[in-house]
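# step 3/5: fold
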Amino acid sequence: MTVSWADGPVVALDLETTSTDPRRDRLVTASVVTITPGPPGTRPEVATRTWLADPGVEIPADATAIHGISTERARRDGRPAAEVVAEVAAELSRVWTPTTPLCAFNAAFDLTMLDAELRRHHGRGLPLGGPVVDPWCVDRHVDPHRRAKRTLGAVCEHYRVRLDDAHTSTGDALAAARLAWRLAKVYPDEVGLVDPSVLHDRQAVWFREGELAYADGLERRATRTSGATADRLRARAGEVRSCARSWPVLPDPRGADEERRAQ
């Protein structure tokens, strides 16, 4: 009998940040959740590590409204970002292995953000410790025609997965792990019974296909408008295309020189 990877140990990651550009913005909170199944009939063991960082920049009010962390709180209670980033990466290197996949919703954002922060503070990138399972990427592939939002909350609602403490790194990390488990059970042939390394490679293809389709849509919208709006749409389409082949850690489409100027 084939056993699903979802019935073994998994790790989940979520970051809350200053905004939505993973190469420019900064980490505020991070959680790494390790879920280890127990004997039949028992609950799994859940171990959580959470960090609060002082990102070294102002946290915009709209970001605070989402995750609840203000600049003042981060400066008062947070630790230096360089220390936090190093510890998160060290914890991932300990628990994320070729046989223990990492679950993250829209993994390209979290892993690219962590990679950028490691480069910013320590001059090194993020090594991939093992396969990634991204419920956002999987859901977009297995149910491409569903006309609904694909936020974490919306996808959890669709699959009837519990989301506690939304927009906290711990709550969102746990929800990502629950979603990964549910998708493995709902789609066993495409997800649950696939070797995690193979599933990782397939998600890279699914991500690329989805992003290229998204870029095509942006370009079609650009043809229906003009001026600065059309230019922005075409520029965004170009950025999407340039990143489409690099899942789960995305390159900086604007180049290293601009990245250094932004630091």
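# step 4/5: annotate
The first strand starts at residue 10 and ends at 17.
# step 5/5: archive (pending)
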